[in-house]
Amino acid sequence: MKKFNIRKVLDGLKEVSSSAPSVQVGPQENHLIQETLQSEHFQLCKTVRHGFPYQPSSMAFDPVQKILAIGTQSGALRLFGRPGVECYCQHESGAAVIQLQFLINEGALVSALADDSVHLWNLRQKRPAILHSLKFNRERITFCHLPFQSKWLYIGTERGNIHIVNVESFMLSGYVIMWNKAIELSSKAHPGPVVHISDNPMDEGKLIIGFESGIVVLWDLKSKKADYRYTYDEAIHSVAWHHEGKQFICSHSDGTLTIWNIRGQGKPMQTITPHGKQPKDGKKPEPCKPILKVEYKTTRNGEPFIILSGGLSYDTVGRRPCLTVMHGKSTAVLEMDYPIVDFLTLCETPYPNDFQEPYAVVVLLEKDLVVIDLAQNGYPIFENPYPLTIHESPVTCCEYFADCPVDLIPALYSVGSRQKRQGYSKKEWPISGGNWGQGTQSYPEIIITGHADGTVKFWDASAIMLQVLYKLKTAKIFDRNRSKEDKGSTEASDDDPFAIQIMAWCPESRMLCVAGVSANVIIYRFSKLEVTTEVLLEVRMQYELNDIESPDGGGEQTSALPTPGASPQTSGPPSHPSTSSNNSDGGNMPCLKVRSAPLKQSPGYQVDLVVQLVWVSGEPPQPITSLALNSSYGLLVFGNSSGLAVVDYVQKTVVLNLGTVELYGSNDPYQRQPRSPRKTRQPVTIKGLYKTVFISFYFVSEVWCLCCLSFMPLLCGCFTSLCFVLTVLLSVCPPRGANPLDHRDNSFSRSRSSSVTSIDKEAREAISSFHFCETFARKGDSTLTPCLYVGTSLGTVLVLALTLPPAGEQRQLQPVLISPTGMLARLKGSILRMAFLDSTGSQLPPAYEPWYEPNVSADGEEREKVRKRRPVSVSPSSSQDLSESQYAVVCSEKQAKVISLPSQTCIYKHSITETSFILRADVVQMSQGVCVACFCANGHIMTLSVPGLRPLMDVNYLPLTDMRIARTFCFTNLGQAMYLCSPTEVQRITYSQDTCENLQEMLGELFTPVETPEAPNRGFFKGLFGGGAQSLDREELFGEVTAGRASRSLAQHIPGPGGIEGMKGAASGVVGDLARARIALDERGQKLGELEERTAAMMASADSFSKHAHEMMLKCKDKKWYQF
Q: pTM for this one?
């Protein structure tokens, strides 16, 4: 039965008014700050999407505009031009994109979807829009083909029929090629779906149709009958023409290629099995895997290229997917890291009837995009300039920083440029279309991503672009060789023991701190110099709480010191003598083993300190739930569901290690009941592990020593003993199994249920957030003190006052003292964010130390100078008048409060949500002022003014579809935010009205006016004897006058939103308007010039005809009829 708690009743009465939108508690302070932010300063919109298209399904390339389009299984379209020019579009239906076809050099794209719809996209605007759609009702679409410079689109279906669509009006023609007419009596069975359609490069009137069963038909469009039929006994996957139109090649399901002469119907002129073993007795080679696609490209001065995917023999088990390039007698097999979705050969000419001159192959893989240089020996790949490697290892956490110090991006780029791989093609990236935007937004932005393999990547995100700057591998400081015996219980092994869980970064000092899933924390310093670290300094921490009223009286235990004679060279710290610990079960061991060999550290981020929590009694350590560091104070703090620890990384000592219960002291508002001890040890996951009241610390070093600290009376009596055992690292910890934590898509680090108010939940009060600041530590203080604010999962804000030694040599020698000063506030839900304002309402960022080179070569004066450099404090001076108070802004999962300091009175509070909970909250600096930005689990994005907590924006943006969004969503200054919208893509959004207004200017142009290359010259003899390309008047053949109208029930025409309205939406300020006007004038002038030339040619032709007619009349004037 739950005990009655009068404190909770009083707290409930105090907070009855929280259901109101915003409550002013202290009216006397209302007039102090004039709020500058208004609702009109906010607008929410998507800006740009970066990363690799998730689950790609199709691809197309415009060889004149040099733009690449990729479609996905979720109906998304990603368009890529030159580096920095990319665009994202989405089909409303969300059906998979099965095929894409550019209207080459027309600024348009046709997409065919798995729901049997075809769409025409207008790419001549910055945000492409659909102009027309056509939805087939009775037939399934399987293949599309749009000939170069044609407006008639061929659509093949599952029934084997071919329909023809006018891409200008998106109306179906009455001309239909029926499957039974195409095959007639050549086959007794249905030939299967259409898998290929293409016209003869030399004769547009001849169409080749490939059916899945193995039948290929050469169809004469004019006579409406089949000229030839070619039958093979294996299913067809693709067909490709030789540019002269006399041969074509087919790829089959048994791993063979067949080359056919168009006039030879019986057998293929050649059959090739690229990867088949040729038997000596002349029999057919063994069947191989299907060749999914083949391309046949010719060169003017050499052998043709045959490029294919698939076709490997079945006995190559475990071999990676391959692309095969056959050129003359040489065959190159290029292994890929992922399965091949599609590939395209890039050629010099868009005309199919000319020598193709291939120069590159674009290979779309399931998780990568590779471009191969065909012109260089060995076929090297091009260095990919797009940010497509976000998912190289799954992203586990993100941080976003806008308006960073200006020297930061160049510094990261300079160290990151040394990490680049060698051996790329020396040519320029071939996908080079479009133009960059004209935006003026120029502040530096950095995105940091933490990954499952322990890597941390820094990205330059300035001006809506994304480029990788630097990559840090945190796993290299640990030993990877973990034997099965060393892994402990099966629960302790995990696929990703090095995964990054939380990151804390100070841009000004460049200090970086990362917490991993194996309960480890690593501190890094930035250096431009290479250094070899002989021994990595490591801290081992143990926090053990035994049951208060356990039957065996374990609660009476006190700390026992390790024996002074223990050898510091042993493989680990001495085992703890508590009866509850079972050392054979892996007691007092960390999850990972730090490397003992010297570590060469390249310029960039270099490890300074490693902190690890250890196993206790066969139980793995709790996951770290919160992390913060302050470069001015030289302190790192982290917390989990047991308590918190403060580490002084300057002196490499542990300053404080306290359980959450001890932070309250005698003022604990919760009646925590002791829990009965476990009768049997069972495999336990990380979540929910909790131990109760005894603390000990392991810190590996050279000498053993013991420090006892005395604390404020507030803490007296709340625990039996607090001691720190410090030793120095000469040895490294033995390996242990990793922490079982599914950190990917479906995990959440702490319980989010607002209805859980049980004693069990109260017993597991976790540390959820930290904030360092210079403020008033106690109620009524007159001076500012460095403080650490601690937020818990039960909504409590606690204050710890910090006493720091003076800067310089004394900072290295004197200890940092920490005094808990009590509870500041209590809110509903877990504390997410804390921040401070000065008396004018401006945000007070924490103090920081400017970056300096830690590996300076000088050992005397210069190093002293560095040490004595005073930290830059942006807090007010301690001598200011007390009337100029500060304001603490605290946001929890449910509500926000503003507390006036030093009086500690709550002057505003606002209930943000009652039915849901906040996933992410940040106090951000906008150009007009400061606000609180919140992302709610029900999909709402909200902003609140400070200090008044007035709602300024509330948009129902995005429902929480998976935990990835919750884990990666973050706000930053100047109205920017981001999250991972798929495992491979980052979506950036803005909630700033200014950015929304300027976005159109910032976006790049996909379409640029480019002249279409001249058609190949037919030559004198080909022109004389008719050997050149034969043109076809498709309008006459497929138009309504000749072919009639198609059945209305066959397909439904849907006008798209991208017509006039789409063009209106594409208006992008004066620059864009002028550019479009100039393009329109150029095109109009070009058309007028062509018209004038045609008129002049027609007049000359008419004159010539008149002259010849007159001469003929004179010649025949006097002749009789029989003389002719």
A: 0.81
pLDDT in tens, 223-235: 999 999 999 989 9
Instruction: Identify the sign of the CA torsion 873, 879, 884, 890.
Output: positive
Q: Which two tokens stand for residue 657?
A: 């290690």
Peptide bond into 497 cis (omega under 30): no
Name the band, by pLDDT with cuts 50, 70 and 90, for residue 616: confident
Rounded-to-integer distance, Cα 623 and Cα 517, Å: 6
Q: Tell me the C-alpha distance between 641 and 715, whole Å.
A: 19
Q: How far from 631 is each of 347, 510, 636, CA to CA, in Å?
A: 55, 9, 9
Cβ neighbours around 314 below 10 Å, total: 11
Q: Tokens standing for 339?
A: 């399965």
Q: How far apart are CA 639 and CA 998, in angstroms?
A: 42
pLDDT digits (tens, 9 = 90+) for 872-897: 555 444 444 445 589 999 999 999 99
User: Which residue has tokens 């691809």?
Assistant: 59
Spell out a b/e string for 768-802, using b for 16 or more CB atoms within 10 Å of the CB, else e: bbbbbbbbbbbeebeebbbbbbbbbbbbbbbbbbb
| Number of alpha carbons in the 13 Å side-chain half-sphere of residue 177 | 31
> Residue 1102: phi, psi to the nearest 5?
-65, -45
What is the SS3 assignment for 1004? Answer: coil
Count of CB atoms situated within 10 Å of the CB of 1042: 13
**What is the token pair recorded at 850?**
């400017």
Residues 725 and 698: their CA atoms lie apart, in Å, by: 6
Helices then strands, each counted (H, E), the chain: 14, 63
Tokens encoding 107: 């600024």
CA gap 454, 497 in Å, rounded: 8
Which residue, among 1079, 1078, 1067, has the nearest Cα to 1000 in the 3D structure?
Answer: 1067
Q: How far is CA 104 from the centre of its chain?
A: 31
Question: Residue 406's pLDDT band (boundaries 50, 70, 90)?
Answer: very high
Residues paired with residue 896 on neighbouring β-strands, in sequence order: 891, 910
Burial of 710-732, coded b for 16+ CB within 10 Å and e otherwise, reads ebeebbeebbeebbbbbbbbebb
Which of 137, 353, 87, 330 is CA-nearest to residue 244?
A: 353
Helical (H) or strand (E) element with 410: helix 408-416
- Residue 217 β-bridge partners: 209, 229
Of 210, 224, 211, 137, nearest in space to 176 by CA: 224
Does a cis peptide bond (omega within 30 degrees of 0) precede residue 947? yes
pLDDT tens-digit readout, 805-841: 998 888 899 999 999 998 999 999 999 999 999 988 8
Residue with tokens 């590159």: 360
**Residue 348, Ramachandran bin (φ over 0: left; ψ between -120 and 50: alpha; else beta):** alpha
CA distance 194 to 861: 80
Instruction: Specify the pLDDT at position 366.
Output: 96
Q: Which helix (H) or strand (E) holds 24?
A: strand 23-24
